[in-house]
Amino acid sequence: MQVGAAAGTEAILLVGGRGTRLRPLTVNTPKPMVPAAGVPFLTHQLARARAAGVEHVVMATSYLAEVFEPYFGDGSRLGLHLEYVTEEEPLGTGGALRNVASRLSSAPGDPVLVFNGDILTGLDIRALVDTHTRSGADVSLHLTRVDDPRAYGLVPTDADGRVTAFLEKPQTPEEIVTDQINAGAYVFDRAVLDTIPRGRPVSVERETFPGLLAEGAHLHGMVDSTYWLDLGTPQAFVRGSSDLVLGRAPSPAVPGRHGESLVLEGAEVAVDAKLTGGTAVGAGAVVGHGARVEGSTLLDGAIVEEGARIRESMVGAGARVGARAVLDGAVVGDGAVVGADNELRAGIRVWCGTELAAGSVRFSSDQ
User: Fold this and answer.
1) Measuring CA to CA, which residue among 93, 36, 44 is closest to residue 72?
2) Which segments of 73-189 does DSSP mark as H helices, in order?
3) Where does the pLDDT of residue 193 fall: very low under 50, low under 70, confident under 90, or very high at 90 and above?
4) 169 is a catalytic site residue
């Protein structure tokens, strides 16, 4: 594999989703901008694309679109040329691609990378582009294998890697003909993007790909079973952040060494507090005496008081967790207050700005 295989390749990042499954994390912040391992998640995707030789990225934005450009600017800080295109009405994945295609400078036969803004992956980006070019495909898809594919779209391929069908979320054993799923990264020939209908919602998964297949187009699948995680739920997002800190998920954008914890500048952690399992502590956050934080994310300005126990949870920006409180698989929204001696487990979500009185919740769930 030549190091420069993807040099000069352009990319589109789909970052317009509302992130409803991630609320309350996405009430004030679009999903790709929620911090993972100390920086907005999108930073990891952009840094990996740049490391693979991508130079120009167009972001297809929609929800809270005004947040992206003030943070990333023209991309020069990351060695990229970034552009932003906002869709006024939701256009789906395919419609979003068509909406931004005019910003590309690629020739009709050039490869264009497409990434979804909520997938954390160790995908070999250069290998995907190289496979696309070598196979002569119109579109190439990153495929990964999962133990239970029922929640995903199955993509069976023949012995040469050519896609033979698209099967959406099968439920019966007879329908599960492969463990290969669409992993959310693609390479399109530039000309194919221009065939997507303009100005209306289009799903690449349900309309574009099956339509191309029916027309006899060459769709190629590359199975890459390195690290892959869909960050669509709070539990998955917290896990992804922890894996980045621990070094299980690759990214050149982690702002520090891999290890049991990552503490950003300006945070205060008591000498007898214990941070483990890939915990990330944001700027200005405070962790009090005797607190234990495992595999969790504390966003900027969060406060964890003495003796609190936090496991596989996220504490939002400026939120406070009271003394001796227990969080296990919980999410606390920005600015919320969890009073002392509360016990929150099993996926409970505390909305932004909510205040729970001391000892008012001993256990709850999101059922």
Assistant:
1) 44
2) 92-100, 125-135
3) very high
4) yes
